Amino acid sequence: MIAATTGTANFFSSAVAAVIVGFLVRSVHLSAGGIGVLMSAGGIGGILGAFTASAIATRIGQARTIWLSVMTTAPFGLLIPFTERGAGLAFYVAGILPVSFGVAVHNVAQVSFRQALCPARLLGRMNATMRFLVWGTTPLG
């Protein structure tokens, strides 16, 4: 299940990444610098998620963290298409920051969960297989 959810998320994240810059340039009419500033909001969300993932997993458990981190933050991505110049840029930030936060929390929790369940002698094989499955969807998106 972890491979399916993470692979699906990577597929759709890649699809969005392929068109988001075009959207911001053509529809929102942003400069390269403006796009960079907006993209940094995603980086901030990811950093915050990575730093808080352990505390969240300790509080609610790793298994719950895996699915809750995605289910509670992914809907914010629906705000991104409402992005407009000026005050409408807040839609992009309000969408990308929590989504990036959730992705980081999910990634930390699911890797930790897998490593805790897998026997030490199989960790290399398990991680190689998981990387193939979840990263293999990225170029398809």
UniProtKB/TrEMBL annotation:
GO terms for cellular component: plasma membrane. Its main location: membrane. This is Major facilitator superfamily MFS_1. Keywords: Cell membrane, Membrane, Transmembrane, Transmembrane helix. InterPro entries: MFS_trans_sf. The chain crosses the membrane at residues 7-25, 31-53, 65-83, 89-109. It is a multi-pass membrane protein. The keyword Cell membrane applies. Gene3D superfamilies: MFS general substrate transporter like domains. The keyword Mitochondrion does not apply. It is found in: Cell membrane.
